[in-house]
Amino acid sequence: MNPAPQVDPLAFPDDRAAARAGKSVTLILALIWPVLAIAVWNDVRQTGQTAGQSDFDAVRSTVDPNTAPWWELTILPGIGETKARDIVAYRNSLFEKPDGKVRKVFESALDLDKIPGIGPKTVARIYPELHFITAENP
Question: Which of these, 58, 55, 70, lies nearest to 131 by C-alpha position?
């Protein structure tokens, strides 16, 4: 006695059914693809931004050296881990006044020139990536 052949429950009963299913999937994709492409194109055209860009990305690309941890400072051009840690160490050494009041160490990008290893060229390179939170500009 030969055992009954195993039947795959996911297999199509015949080739015609498989062909119809394949054509259906192709038709659905052919109808959906242009609609998605038009939607994305309209969004890019209206906002001027691609899907990966947002206002958050633009805000996130600037750094406040008065509050940023060292690893965040490393996104600045020409600032590696050593210089970033030097910025934080300098900031922490001057951040608190003797009377216990906290003050900002860096009022502008030019203040970073006081840190060894950061000169005018580095300051000029990182200036566009910096922001300084003030009472008028929270």
Answer: 58
pTM over 0.70: no
Return the CATH number of 58-129, one of 3.40.190.10, 1.10.150.320, 1.20.1090.10, 1.10.10.10: 1.10.150.320
| Amino acid letter, 66 | N
CA distances from 62 to 83, 92, 137 (A): 17, 20, 14
CB 132 within 8 A of CB 106: yes
Characterise 11 by phi-psi region: left (phi > 0), alpha (psi -120 to 50), beta (else). Answer: beta
Reported as a single tens digit per residue, the pLDDT across 39-53 is 766 665 665 555 555
